[in-house]
Amino acid sequence: QVQLVESGGGLVQAGGSLFLSCQASRSTFSFNAMCWYRQAPGKQRELVALITSGGSTNYADSVKGRFTVARDGAKNTMILQMNSLTPEDTAVYYCNGVLRLPTGPVDYWGNGTLVTVSS
Fold it and tell me: Which of 63, 70, 69 is CA-nearest to residue 84?
C-alpha cells in the first residue's frame, strides 16, 4: 500500500513563503514521477510542479521562478518551496506519485494540504 501524506500548509500573507512536504511510504526515487497539484475553490485541479525519477523538473507557467520542487531520498519526501505567494496561489495542494507497473501506470494521491494566501 503506497501512502502519501502532505504537510506544511497554512495561512500566509501575500509575498510570504511556505514549505510543503510530502511523506511517501516508499522511496521517492521509486516513482516514475512525483507531482504537486492544486485545486482552488470552484476550479479544476491543475499541475503545479513535477519531478521525474531522473530529477528533471517542470513547472506551471504561473509558478515558474517562485516555486521549487525537490526530493529528499534519505527521508522519502518530496518538497515544494513556495516563495512570493499571491492570493491566486490559494488552494488545496495535493501530492501525487506515479508508479509504472507491468499492468500500466498507477497514480497515488495524498489527501491534500490547504494553503491560504491573504492579501
Answer: 63
Per the document, the length of the chain is: 119
Share of the chain above pLDDT 90, in %: 95
At 103 the pLDDT is: 92
At 54, the amino acid letter reads G
Please list the ranges in the chain whose pLDDT falls under 70.
Answer: none
pLDDT at 20: 98
Spell out the residues 6+ positions from residue 83 whose beta carbon is closer than 8 angstroms to its own: 17, 66, 67
Q: What is the DSSP letter of 84?
A: S
Taking the C-alpha atoms of residue 71 and residue 84, their distance in angstroms, rounded to an integer, is: 21
CB 80 within 8 A of CB 48: yes
d(CA 67, CA 105) in angstroms, rounded, equals 26
